[in-house]
C-alpha cells in the first residue's frame, strides 16, 4: 500500500467516529507531562482544534499542581499534603487562584488563539459555573473514631451551571476551565481537576470524559494494559489492589461519570502525541476505557 493510500485508509477509518461524535460534548482533563513538553502542548491544541472543526464540542479542564508548587516555593509558603490533597489556607488559596486562573489558564488559551481558533478561559466563579462546598475528609481507623482532617479551602463540586459554556460554544469559542469553585457565601475553593471534569461531563451529558495522564492507562498486575473495564470490573480491581494509589481517584471520577449521563470515560497517555485523536477516531484506540 502506498503512503497516500494508507493516509486515505486512516481518514476513512475515522469517518464513522467523526459522524458519531459530531454535535456532542467531549470533556478533557488536561494535565501532566502534556502541559509541560512544548511538542506535546502544541499536539494537544491541534488535536482539540481538529475535534472542533469536525463538529465536536470539546471542553477543557486543566490542572496545575507543579506550577502551584513552584510558586509556593518561590514565595516561601510551606506546602503540606494529606491523602493526596494540598492543605489550602488563605495564603495558599491566593496562590492557587493566581497560578491556575491567571497563568496556566491564560497560557492554554493563548496557544489556541495563536492557531487562529478562539478560546476563552474561565474559572468556576465565571457565570456561577462551579458552585462548591468545603470537602470534608474523614480517615477511617481500626478500633478508633475516624480522623477528621481539615484541608482548609479544598472543595468539592456541588453544582455545575452549563449556561456559560454553551453560550461560548454557540459563538465558536473553546472553553478552557480552571478548577476553582465558589460557595454561596463567596468563599473560593481549590478543587481536584479530575472531579471538576467529571462533574462537567455529567452536567453536559457528554459523549466522553477523557483524562490525560502520565501512564499508558490502567495496568493489570502483570503490567499489561487493560483496554476496557466495566464499572464492576473497575470496582473489583480496586478491591484486589490492581488499581491503587493516584489511579483510584481517577477511576472513581470515571465511574461516577458513566453511572450518570456519560457514555464512556477514558484514561489515556498524554505523553503520546495525538493520543486524543487516536483514542476517539481509531478502532484500536489507546489507553483504558471505562463503560457502564
What would CATH call the homologous superfamily? Answer: Acetylglutamate kinase-like
Number of strands: 16
CATH architecture: 3-Layer(aba) Sandwich
> What fraction strand?
25-35%
Question: From the helix content, strand content and strand pairing, which structural class follows?
Answer: alpha/beta
The overall average pLDDT, rounded, is 90
Order of helices and strands: HEHEHEEHEEEEEHEEEHEEHHEHE
Globally, the shape reads: globular
Helix content: 40-55%
Number of helices: 9
Question: For the CA atoms, what is the radius of gyration?
Answer: 19 Å
Instruction: Please mark out the parts with pLDDT under 50 across 5 or more consecutive residues, or reply none.
Output: none
Instruction: Describe the main β-sheet briefly.
Output: 8 strands, mixed
